[in-house]
Amino acid sequence: MRVLLVGSGGREHAMAAAIARSPRLDALFIAPGNPGTAALGTNVAIAADDVPALVALARAERIDLVVPGPEAPLVAGLADACAAAGIPCAGPSLAAAALEGSKSFTKEICDAARIPTAKWERFDAIAPALEFVRRRGAPIVIKADGLAAGKGVVVAQSVAEAEDAIRAMMEDETLGAAGRSVVIEECLTGDEVSLFAFCAGETAVLIGAAQDHKRIGEGDTGPNTGGMGAVSPPAGFDRATQDAALDLLVRPMLAEMVRRGTPFRGVIFAGLMLTEDGPKLIEYNVRFGDPEAQALLIRLQSDLLPALASVADGTLDAADIRFSDEHSVSIVLAARGYPGRPAAGGVIEDIEAAAALPGVAVFHAGTRRDDAGRLVAAGGRVLTVCATGATLQEARARAYGGVARIRWPDAVWRRDIGVRALRAGG
Predict the structure, then answer these.
(1) pLDDT of residue 206 exceeding 80
(2) Among 106, 195, 299, 341, which residue has the fewest nearby CB atoms (within 10 Å)?
(3) Which family does it belong to (predicted)?
(4) 3-class SS at 343?
(5) Which domains, from first to last, does the chain contain?
């Protein structure tokens, strides 16, 4: 098969590594890719959301399957454009991608399908939104209704903090069009986990679960980020519990999407809160998470390529999808200054030495080659160091051993990834 993978982050490098192992692969193109994916296929300098150029590339290269990585090309209509061109795509239509593109749409689906979730209201004007939080009090959750690259959620611990978030989104437009309307929710409490499944129509096949570490600082302190590391599986969320959550929170959504004439096809990423009353949905994302994908895909035992093809052609119920019972840990190395103004241009060395350690893999995200051919930092989250092990403790020790091998003076990372899971008996 000739495959076009869309994206440039650590998630896409992990996906490219899994696809490249397939005996069914004839050629792999990555648009735009990164220095890590360049070793696995052919990088093409096309932006991930440039749908016309991506479709033109797929036609020119006789692509058999388009695999979207991030959400941006999906909410730009990549799957629809591929369908119009007769090119299979392992991702949802624009209408189905509204599960991630609109928080209020997801809430409407949950209400229609009787999926447990937080109580909510949507606001298009600032005055009633402010009045609502003053009446309800805090803690309370403020969400930009549209896509905000992982930065559109504020868990406000006070009414003043909630008011500031509403003004920033709706008045100052700090998130652009994404925050012109907001969803305000009750604040759920418990452990947050991420559940992943391949989906096609009403069929869902479990991939697994992971637990992200969102904040920049140890002990879950400091600003939210795109994710600083993950463990898989989460402590206390075994496969039987994951299957039950799929029945409760994902399959009813798929049935409702089919009922509406907008069936979902792709990877679903359900963010859950494990409350005292059972799991409740926080949000849906319509793709793999990052860095959760890295932690999950290094546990993959079966061939990813035919699984993705079965998502695209609707034969998912016959797919062979197997993951190991090992534990895995992913640790993000970010540039100094992230998530504010990350330092760029610092030289990164000895990635190969880290990747040579038992059970360790290193995935590129914000990297590039300079004029001298040296690998340098070119983003906020720059590398993800991952490892597997028979226990969480072993996987964690291996991952941090990999981090220690890499030479990059500007690197910052959390030193407590997986500590909470270990304390919980993971």
Answers:
(1) yes
(2) 341
(3) Belongs to the GARS family.
(4) coil
(5) 2-89 (3.40.50.20), 125-180 (3.30.1490.20), 189-426 (3.30.470.20)
